[in-house]
Amino acid sequence: MIGRILKLFRGAPVLVPGTSALVEGEARKVDIGDPAAGGRQILLCRVDGEVHALDSLCPHEGGRISAGPLTDGRLAVCPLHSYRFDPKTGKAVGVSCKAARTYRTREGASGTDVWA
Fold this sequence. Notes:
single chain; Rieske Iron-sulfur Protein; seven-stranded antiparallel sheet; 10 strands
């Protein structure tokens, strides 16, 4: 775990194994470091065959964007006010809200590298 935290501060990618099991239209939460101690909780979403990373913290009022099935197979939802976000861009859909933070990803045979 210490190694993951150090990678976070060095700007190196963090390998998230097992992302090949993430099916189209689904989202899974992953902790990078300890969220209570400055780490991040991100949402990995598979859309159009690619894995996208979205911060799970909703920019509207600090709710948490949900893991599980994506709305219409494409949009992540914060259940606090039902705001929907495009995992590819982080942009809110159908409401006036700041975009959720996104992270660069690269999927490989052993998992997905996330620059968080």
